[in-house]
Amino acid sequence: MPRPEQNFISFEIDGREVRAPEGMSLVDAAKNGDVEIPVFCYEPKLGQAVGACRMCLVEIEGSPQLEIACKTPVEDGMVVVTTSDSVKQAQNAIVEFLLINHPLDCPVCDKGGECPLQDITFGWGPGRSRFIEPKRHFEKPLELSPLIAIDRERCILCYRCVRFSGEVAEDYQLVFLERADSTYVGTHQGHPYVAPFSGNIIDLCPVGALTSNAYRFRARPWDVENGGSVCTLCPSQCNVTFTVRDDAKVLRVFARDNAKVDDGWLCDRGRFGFQAVHAPERITRPMLREGGALHEVSWERALSEAAGGLERAGAGTAALVGGETTNEEGFLLQRLMREGLGSPHLDSRPGGALDPEQARALGRPELAAMVPDIDYADAVVVVDTDLQDESPILDLRVRKAIRRFAVKVVLVGGRPGALDPPADAIVRTTPDGGEAALGALAAALAEVEPVSVPPSDRRVPRDPAQTPTGGLDERQHGEPERQGESAGRERVDDLARRAGTSAEAVRNAAAALRAAGPTVVLWGERLSDGPRGRQGVAALLALARALEIPETEGSGLIEIPSGTNARGLREAGCLPGLGPGLLDAPQAGRPAAEIAAGLGEDLSALVLLNADPLRTHPDRAGWKRALEATTFVVAFADFESETVAEHADVVFPAESYAEREGTVTHADGRLQRVRQSIAHPGEVRPVWSVLAELGARLGAPADPPFLTSPMVTRAITEAVPFLAGLTLEELSGKGKRWQERDAAEAAPEAPSLPQADELEEPPEPVAPSNGDLRLGTTRSLWAGRETEHAPILRFLAPHQRVELSPQDGRALGVESGDEVEVSRNGSSVRGIAALRDALPPRSVYLIEGTAQDSATELLDGESTTVTVRRVEAE
Amino acid sequence: MTPDPGAAETMSDISSNALSDDVIAVQRGPTPTRSKAVYRAFGATLRSLRTTLARTLEKPTTIQYPEQKTPVYPRFRGRHKLHRFEESGLEKCVGCSLCVAACPAECIRVVAAENTPEHQVSAGERYAAVYEINMSRCIFCGYCELACPFDAITMGNDYELSDYTRSDLIFTKEMLLAEPIERTPLRREGE
Ligand code: SF4
Ligand code: SF4
Ligand code: SF4
Ligand code: SF4
Ligand code: FES
Q: Could you tell me if A321 and A495 are in contact, meaning their C-beta atoms sit under 8 angstroms apart?
């Protein structure tokens, strides 16, 4: 949908002349004139107003009866009255009606003190009740799910929660049951409402009918303080508010609306995962391995041991950086490694190296889309990722774009995902077919026939004044080159075959994209992983070229990385070959997989900054060997994972995201501030200060020394040309995309994007022999530390699930729910089989990062096949 | 120091000028004669002696605190009490924190928790797991009592709250639910 134009009109409300954009809801427009119209059911985030509660009645001149303001768009010259007697009478009547069956148990109700029903009753109600009859009663308290408590007596039937479930999250689980005053909110057959976004209904409910079990009876609004920050538990980087009691305890997390990032929604992992901050098993004191076991020691001891060990290893030190690391921590670590220890070997990507030229190309401002572009694009391409699991809020964003703005969605990938039902075209590939599929798509877009759809006239060139064009401007704009027709068609057919998909599916997708104007491509980091990662990114860039992304306003790529702050870490210099600002590092380092190979050989020490290779990195067996061979391991960790418990020599307690201070960068380039909300528990110290201290002891002292986190931020802005002059004030509130600042012109140049026909030939798909299946992996929203350490989320911690197509299931004699063993080269994992109709045959999908039986056991970076066998019950 | 002739002149000036308008003459009684003076000194002594002797027959008005205590009026606002329901023994307080919101001295702290069938503390869904009043901060305004929707907290009459450490002045829920150790007598009808 094109970005709507704002046309200002003026209307009169309560005798005041007010200007507002045409078509805006009267409720919102009234705010421009400082008039508050009370509402219960109206919530712009939920889409169209439904007019369920009638609280917003107003008088509009020329209308014979009162009108609901929420569903009335403002018009030029409208005359609105909200203070007349008839309006007052109506408001009193609605409040009185709502309270007829309302239990008024404010003292025991969790909403008390922040309850719109209380506020509106106080502000617009009649002040006394005439109702003396008995009230309606329901059983209470009830659990709607282990996360949410429902009190049906308090419900005012505003439809918000039901609309959210049906029209925003599209899980269709919540419904109204029964009729009239017996109506209540429930689920079909009383199933618990467990869904990735269920917690949002707690924020939405205007009364205390839906409350959080985690926050239940914990505090009142006047007992707490709220602090804004950013959730760093997944790459969506939603803006959140921490509710803190006694400066020490996070009690709740709720959304801090930022339409440019999260649209005001949170996933349940972000909403409830905070409990892990206060888990008793958290590491809060430095530890040292003595006599084979970890013992708590003083900071001074831990620091001197760490400094001593790293000094001994010197250039033989390597480092892994986990995705939750802030820009500041990443920057200090690369400084410590490169300048202090003289070692270039550090990596923040678990899956494989990223070519420096490609990293720069991907970093170019003209290839970057921002999150709101999804709403206003014509088409969205989702490549090799299941958004719901890997960046859940973008899943909601894409759903909104489809539902409200009729955006076309093309999915490319091997595993059927949550966006399949609303997608317009699906290119289903083999697990490693992303590269070939994108190549095919790019080639098909250049085909003249059989696609006869002319390119959309909505591809508006970018405003050159706003968009810096760098190394890309030698590419010709306008008409893409047409290839030799039949050669092109054969190529599409061949590439589609290599991707394990049909040429027809590719052409369908191409047809949808060709007709589209601005297009946003959301691509999973997986595409760039493994030995063919470079070719995968090349295919992506070729697709970007075929879609004219660099030239089109509102088009762009958004990466869905595996780590929260992948983009920030890359730009702060945490890739093996790239220093701060995506500039070539003086010395090329080794990526993670090569670090594993080198440990015990020429590498002897390893720094793990919020990284847990045994859990997140492919080739678990290889990492196990590597960690055993490493002489000295320094880990910054919050929990005693296997890596820490068995291999770390010095453990520094890591800060939780509620204690951190620093910045992170969203995949669309938005820098956001992570702000400290609670005091550090135990002896936890800020990680940046520990890294700065180690830097000072190991030959990379700063001048002046880093005394505060903002000083480190400042150092980053000095080292990264395209962040020059950035201040923390600029980032306050909603953050700032660096592409929108003047300094973005300094973004490093990149070579021109490859043409579809310049791409390397992708390999033939691996041919599974004698009943083996191609292994694909996926991540689960619930496979993570938070799920295991937050008591309320523990019930969601996933077991390994082996997804098979029904054909393969039949051939192997496996049914859904059977326990199966998946093995390869002597390693094996067990899991519960799940047969999925939409899964292409000869593929099997496993979850990465589960606590036990993680798929990373089976991976070694290559495309592979595995043997699946049913485990006979003893 | 030589006397200032000018000053002397001014002095005589004033006396010669008799009483100017802004000087008020002190009205004195007639200068007492000797016998009157004697009477005055002894008379006053005797009068006060009479008062003293007259009071020796009365009961003392001072109170022998702490052996004795001043009775207070029923609405005297002293140390708070938390109440239970008489029949069930359940606490009346549901931990709603309204008293916390009302307290101008910010000296109440409530942390609520949920009742379970096995552990039913109050009558509602929730109860106060922690209920503390910092008596060294309380100004005994009684707003907490007014705010409480369940009459769970009321102001008692006891005023003996001194202690040796500040932390001992933080009254816990158990202390507030229990009868005060030092009781204050209540003023009886007509007293
Ligand atoms: S929903 Fe609001 S009005 Fe109803 S009991 Fe709870 S706090 Fe009171
Ligand atoms: S439960 Fe809350 S959000 Fe849902 S209909 Fe009732 S009042 Fe509205
Ligand atoms: S009497 Fe006043 S100051 Fe004392 S606890 Fe109650 S509200 Fe607070
Ligand atoms: S004493 Fe009364 S006002 Fe205070 S928490 Fe208990 S019930 Fe609420
Ligand atoms: S807010 Fe308008 S009808 Fe509910």
A: no
Check CB contact of A771 with chain B, cutoff 8 Å: no
Identify whether the C-beta of residue A475 lies closer than 8 Å to the C-beta of residue A550. yes
A541-551, pLDDT tens digit by residue? Answer: 999 999 999 99
DSSP state of A168: I
Q: Which residues contact B45 (CB under 8 A, 6 or more apart)?
A: none
Domain extent, residue A798, equals: 773-870
Q: Does A157 reside within a domain?
A: no
Which residue's C-alpha comes closest to atom 7 of ligand 3? Answer: B103
Question: Virtual CA dihedral for A605, A609, A610, A616, nearest 10 degrees?
Answer: -50
Measure the CA–CA gap between B191 and B186, rounded to whole angstroms. 10
Q: Ligand 1, closest atom to CA A102? A: 4
Give the tokens for residue A221.
């609004």
Single pTM value for the model: 0.89
pLDDT tens profile A612-625: 999 999 988 899 99
Pocket of ligand 4 (CB under 6 A): A 107; B 93-99, 110, 128, 147-148, 150, 152-153
The number of the ligand 3 atom at minimal distance from the alpha carbon of B108 is: 5
Q: Pick the residue from chain B with its C-alpha nearest to A141.
A: B125
> How many domains is chain A partitioned into structurally?
3
Where residue A401 sits, what CATH number does that domain have?
3.40.228.10
Residues A674 and A570 in one domain: yes
What residues does ligand 2 touch, defined as CB less than 6 Å away? A 155-161, 185, 204-207, 209-210
Q: Are residues A330 and A370 in the same domain?
A: no
Ligand 5 close to Cβ of residue A54 (< 6 A):
yes
Residues A549 and A424 reside in one and the same domain: yes
Q: Give the residue extent of every domain in chain B.
A: 80-177
Instruction: State the complex-level ipTM.
Output: 0.83
* DSSP E strand stretches across A710-826: 736-737, 773-779, 801-804, 819-824
Residue A548 and residue A438 in one domain: yes
Fold observed for domain B80-177: Alpha-Beta Plaits (3.30.70)
Identify the closest residue of chain A to B103 by CA–CA distance.
A222
Residues of A in contact with B116 (CB under 8 A): none
A141–B contact, CB cutoff 8 A: yes
Judge if A541 and A569 occupy the same domain: no
Q: In this structure, are A412 and A548 located in the same domain?
A: yes
Is residue A488 situated within a structural domain?
no
